[in-house]
Design brief:
Helix content is 65%, strand content 3%. By secondary structure, it is mainly α. The protein has a single domain, classed as Up-down Bundle (Rhomboid-like fold), CATH 1.20.1540. It has a two-stranded antiparallel sheet. The protein is globular, with a radius of gyration of 18 Å.
């Protein structure tokens, strides 16, 4: 998909984000202290003894495997190139990071509520396992990119792979957002951080509106 004539050129922030994520996957796969690395850099429930505030930043550079990394980096490369050219490298990087951190904050809030509810329902010792479950991945930031692309290029045609259907970006983002909300509320696909995805989209939407009100971007 050639979007807005940029072809396959990769601007610097997208390129370096992809490299950083790939390096981190190699580190957490090959290094002898990989388990300790994940334990320190992944995002944990704020009630967990494993939680550190810096994890809201570091978690988005870790992934659960090659497949997880590939799909996130493909989406970053596909949509991020156009957005970086549109926003500029500095603003694009700020947007990406704010979406990723915002995704972490919402996921932490939901995770804490789930833990509190489980502790009251089944007891502290049983609920303690929830505190050991890490959240990793750039998906929250990437969902923010999807939101931005749908807002800034609403009528751009996107060709889906599964199923092979073409649709406008605005409908793609809307459908994806509603699906994530349904999955998050229903508990379906419980191993996926759906509220982190929604958090990335919500913070992205708020930031785009703020920039538009400030006269920094127009849509």
């Amino acid at each position: 998909m050639n979007m807005n004539g940029y072809g396959f050129n990769t601007p610097p922030v997208v390129k370096n984000l992809v490299i950083a994520n790939c390096v981190m996957l190699l580190a957490t796969t090959l290094l002898p202290f990989r388990d300790e690395l994940i334990g320190r850099l992944a995002l944990f429930n704020p009630a967990s003894p494993l939680f550190h505030t810096y994890q809201v930043f570091t978690y988005m550079f870790l992934h659960g495997g090659v497949g997880h990394l590939f799909f996130n980096m493909f989406a970053l490369w596909m949509f991020g190139r156009t957005l970086e050219y549109r926003l500029g490298s500095r603003r694009f990087f700020a947007y990406y990071m704010i979406c990723g951190i915002g995704a972490a904050l919402l996921q932490m809030g939901v995770g804490y509520l789930e833990y509190s509810h489980a502790a009251n329902a089944i007891g502290l010792s049983a609920a303690f396992e929830l505190l050991r479950v890490p959240t990793v991945g750039a998906s929250g930031a990437v969902f923010g990119l999807l939101l931005a692309f749908g807002v800034l290029y609403p009528n751009q045609i996107i060709m889906l792979i599964f199923p092979p259907v073409a649709m406008k970006a605005k409908w793609f983002v809307l459908i994806y957002g509603l699906l994530e909300l349904f999955f998050g509320l229903s508990g379906y696909q419980s191993g996926v951080a759906h509220f982190a995805h929604l958090g990335g989209m919500l913070w992205g939407w708020a930031l785009l509106l703020w920039w538009r009100r400030s006269g920094k971007i127009y849509f």
